[in-house]
TrEMBL record, chain A:
BP-aspect Gene Ontology terms: response to antibiotic
Keywords: Antibiotic resistance, Cell membrane, Membrane, Transmembrane, Transmembrane helix, Transport
Species for this entry: Verrucosispora sioxanthis
Phylogenetic classification of the source organism: Bacteria, Bacillati, Actinomycetota, Actinomycetes, Micromonosporales
Membrane topology summary: Multi-pass membrane protein
Name the record gives this protein: Transport permease protein
Keyword DNA repair: no
UniProt similarity note: Belongs to the ABC-2 integral membrane protein family.
Cellular component GO terms, alphabetical: ATP-binding cassette (ABC) transporter complex
UniProtKB/TrEMBL annotation, chain C:
Domain ABC transmembrane type-2: 23-248
Molecular function terms from GO: ABC-type transporter activity
Membrane topology designation: Multi-pass membrane protein
Keyword set, alphabetical order: Antibiotic resistance, Cell membrane, Membrane, Transmembrane, Transmembrane helix, Transport
GO biological process terms held by the UniProt record: response to antibiotic
Family named by the database record: Belongs to the ABC-2 integral membrane protein family.
Transmembrane segments: 24-43, 55-81, 102-128, 134-161, 173-197, 222-245
Phylogenetic classification of the source organism: Bacteria, Bacillati, Actinomycetota, Actinomycetes, Micromonosporales
Cellular localization per UniProt: Cell membrane; Membrane
InterPro entries per record: ABC2_TM, ABC2_TM_bact-type, ABC_2_transport, Nod_factor_ABC_transporter
The name this protein goes by in its record: Transport permease protein
Xref: Pfam families: ABC2_membrane
Length: 261, 333, 250
């Protein structure tokens, strides 16, 4: 084999190495803890919140079983991203990152591998939560295209957040600290959105903040895609938000990646 | 019996018969895995016994039984004259353990750890502080005394761990692989501290996978393999049993085969260890024989020397089957 | 007595660890506060609008209980590290009482719970929470919290002693504690739950203690919920206490 056909360049190498790393990422995390996070917690949240608020919102004329699952999906996209950020820090701490970077492996394979495994977790979460929601009364009321749009938007949301958490993760070597740091913005962003209660239930002065938060915009788009009348008017602001955030977060992640050694 | 009349005074008598550690037919199983099959040995008071064995030989289980951490399934053991099963509390009042993992609070500083253990052992607040100061000084930790333990290097951690075991001086010390993972310099420092303890009259049971460590520190050695005692004696005795003196010959690599053949024709057995050729040398004359045989074969040796076998050779001789068994008795010139 | 002294020394150590680790401190103090404020903003109108009393009167005691229950995750992780890191082993080869390490852990955590309760109640005060039943009831409030905490402390010790890793211990406690909060009266009144679920919600230890705390702060029945809480504590202590002690001797 000559140097020209090395192992570092070309789409073939990237795909093979990326999928090898993605496989390792998935296997590493395929443990009892992740089973609880992806199998047990979504069920608890869907049914727990329904028990809590189903009746209260029914009185206000809101079908909470249809309202809630898209929010739980968004919440779990945060979980995927936060877990990924902690895993990046762990890879840096253990020397795994250094090893990959010191081998004749395509630079982008590390990133591709991480994104691919996160996408798998994200899809898994969407499936589990939708199925749980189905039991509780949630339905995809639009066509197949809308369902596809729902899944793609959810995964895109997860990967956009992953770009941000990777930037944080790669700037630390303590996975626990990263997880703790990421927990705070996650809680604030998800709770101060239309995830669990509609915008008009918040105090008046807070309403505009809630309504225009990117998390709310994405959740409203997901809700629209699950409804009888999916509307492009609800989806494009979400796509625009994600595109914009992706540019910023990717830049931050790339910077952290170059500095992390 | 007129025994009282014969005794040379109570103080003197005590110094001679001070009890150390007695282990008789100790047995311990975990599920269906036999960790300790049948182990007996004695550590006379004031001596240091080395417990030598590879990973899984049963060293730590023996230590855990003797320090009351686990209860043995069979046999009997006494530490400082107290039975480990019947009198665990008295045993704990007589011992100190330095385990394989530094048993310290990572968040607290070195000084705080020592004060904590001192207070638990009822030295009082002031007493515990004073003792901590002494130990920090003696173990060269004064400078790092107020830093959290998690920032300590491996050597500092082990020293602090040993210091924590000595907050109250105990007659019997258990050191479970105290230098595993340390750099040579830190290991040398630990050895010095352990030697001081032994010279100070403590009974010490030291486990190690490092043969050099046992060789340098121990009065007697017990070699464990697979939960059994396979050899026991002083380090010199064990070396003697492996084959007394050997002659080690270093030759250029390309000529090694020829040299081995030449030596074999004249002396019988030739082994190869660490790149050098080794032949048993029961008499000083063997040296001359070696030189002559090599000369006749036209091989120039880089080095020829007589030496005693190393503890590595002792270890391999007793633990591995066949390849390097004790063979000196059968090989003569 | 020597057990008391030894336990207090070890409790001091646990407390010192806690106060020195910004993350543990943050988890224990800022987490409940954030939860308090965010939940108030989120649910204040929906839930508060459906009942007569201000939502903070329900939420503040609820968050105190949840924080205390949730802190058992930290207790389990810390205790697991002690057991497997050798610290516990050293204590066990020392001539101290067998009970002391367990009691020391519990005593240290009790101080932590008092701190969490005081801080949460103080911030709740700024948001409109009030003790309307006098000083004795306020003291009773604190005592109920500490009693209630025992349930989760025992649980944390047993989980820490049986879990294979610190992460496993944490995730084994995380899900049940969160579920208990959701299916309790800490966030919404009993009447908001569907009829078939109400007996379960009512029996939840968080609901029992919550009713007692609301009674002791805003007013309402006290004796029955306190007795119910006590029953939970006794049950947990009799069942999990000896189990923890036996596991810690292994």
């Amino acid at each position: 084999m000559t140097a020209a056909t090395g192992t570092e360049h070309g789409i073939g190498n990237l795909a093979a190495q990326g999928s090898a790393l993605a496989g390792r990422n998935l296997r590493q995390r395929a443990n009892a803890e992740m089973l609880v996070v992806f199998g047990v917690f979504p069920v608890i949240f869907v049914f727990g919140f329904l028990l809590l608020f189903g009746r209260l919102f029914a009185e206000r004329g809101l079908d909470y079983a249809q309202f809630l699952p898209p929010a739980i999906v968004a919440q779990w996209m945060f979980t995927v991203a936060n877990t990924s950020g902690a895993a990046s820090a762990a890879d840096r701490a253990s020397g795994m990152l250094t090893r990959c970077l010191s081998m004749p492996v395509n630079r982008a394979a590390v990133v591709v591998g991480r994104l691919a495994s996160d996408a798998v977790w994200a899809v898994l979460a969407v499936v589990v939560i939708s199925a749980t929601g189905y039991v509780a009364g949630f339905r995809f009321q639009g066509g197949a295209l809308a369902v596809l749009g729902f899944v793609l938007l959810a995964v895109a949301f997860a990967l956009t957040l992953t770009a941000a958490t990777t930037a944080v993760g790669l700037s630390s070597t303590d996975p626990e600290a990263v997880a703790a740091t990421l927990n705070l913005p996650y809680l604030a962003l998800i709770m101060l959105s239309t995830a669990f209660v509609p915008a008009d239930a918040f105090p008046g002065w807070l309403e505009p903040v809630i309504r225009y938060s990117p998390v709310s915009v994405v959740i409203e788009a997901l809700r629209s895609l699950a409804s009888t009348t999916p509307s492009w008017g609800k989806v494009w602001p979400a796509v625009a938000w994600l595109a914009g955030l992706l540019v910023i977060f990717s830049w931050a992640a790339a910077r952290a990646f170059r500095r992390a050694r | 019996m007129p025994a009282p009349a014969l005794a040379g005074g109570p103080g003197e008598d005590e110094a001679v018969t001070q009890p150390g550690i007695e282990v008789e037919h100790l047995r311990k199983e975990f599920g269906d895995k036999v960790a300790v099959a049948d182990i007996s040995f004695t550590v006379p008071g004031g001596t240091l016994l080395g417990l030598l064995g590879s990973n899984g030989a049963g060293k730590t289980t023996v230590i855990n039984c003797l320090t009351t951490l686990v209860e043995p399934d069979g046999g009997r053991a006494a530490v400082a004259g107290h039975d480990v099963v019947a009198q665990p509390r008295q045993v704990r009042e007589s011992i100190a353990l330095t385990g394989q993992f530094a048993a310290l609070d990572e968040v607290l500083s070195g000084r705080e750890n020592l004060v904590l253990f001192g207070r638990l052992l009822r030295l009082g607040r002031t007493g515990a502080r004073q003792r901590a100061e002494e130990l920090l000084d003696r173990f060269h930790l004064t400078e790092a005394a107020d830093k959290p333990v998690k920032s300590y290097s491996g050597g500092m951690r082990r020293r602090l761990d040993l210091a924590a075991s000595l907050v109250v001086e105990r007659p019997v010390l258990f050191l479970d692989e105290p230098t595993t993972g340390l750099d040579p310099r830190s290991r040398e420092e630990m050895w010095q501290l352990i030697r001081q303890l032994r010279d100070g009259g403590s009974t010490v049971l030291l486990t190690s996978q490092y043969l050099e460590e046992i060789d340098r520190l121990a009065d007697r050695v017990v070699v464990l393999d697979d939960g059994q005692v396979i050899a026991e004696g002083t380090t010199d005795e064990l070396k003697e049993r492996v084959g007394g003196q050997v002659c080690e010959i270093e030759v250029p690599v390309p000529e090694k085969e020829a040299a081995a053949a030449a030596l074999r024709s004249g002396l019988g057995e030739v082994a190869e260890r660490g790149g050098a050729l080794v032949v048993p040398a029961p008499r000083a004359r063997t040296l001359a024989d070696v030189v002559r045989l090599l000369e006749e074969a036209g091989i120039e040796a880089e080095n020829v020397a007589l030496r005693k076998p190393t503890m590595d050779e002792v270890f391999f001789a007793f633990t591995s089957d066949g390849t390097q068994r004790p063979n000196a008795e059968r090989s003569g010139v | 007595m020597s057990v008391g002294y030894e336990a207090s020394v070890l409790a001091g150590r646990n407390l010192r660890r806690f106060l020195r680790s910004p993350r543990l401190l943050g988890d224990a103090i800022t987490f409940p506060l954030i939860l308090l404020v965010l939940l108030l903003v989120m649910f204040g109108e929906v839930v508060g609008g459906a009942t007569d009393e201000p939502y903070i009167a329900r939420l503040a005691p609820g968050i105190v209980l949840f924080s205390v229950a949730y802190s058992c995750v930290g207790t389990a992780v810390g205790f697991h590290a002690d057991v497997h890191g050798g610290f516990q082993g050293r204590l066990r080869t020392m001539p101290i009482a067998r009970m002391s390490p367990l009691l020391g852990r519990i005593a240290g955590d009790v101080v932590k719970f008092v701190l969490v309760t005081v801080v949460t109640v103080a911030v709740g005060y700024l948001l409109g929470f009030r003790f309307e039943q006098g000083v004795a009831a306020a003291v009773g409030f604190l005592l109920v919290v500490l009693l209630f905490a025992l349930i989760f402390l025992w649980l944390a010790l047993v989980v820490a002693l049986t879990a294979r890793s610190a992460e496993a211990a944490a995730s084994a406690l995380n899900a049940p504690v969160t579920l208990l909060l959701l299916v309790s009266t800490c966030l919404v009144p009993l009447s908001a739950f569907p009829g078939w679920a109400q007996p379960v919600i009512r029996a939840n230890p968080l609901s029992c203690a919550h009713a007692a705390l609301v009674g002791l702060s805003s007013g309402g029945p006290v004796l029955v919920p306190v007795l119910q809480t006590l029953a939970w504590v006794l049950g947990a202590t009799l069942l999990l206490g000896p189990l923890a002690l036996r596991l810690s001797r292994r």
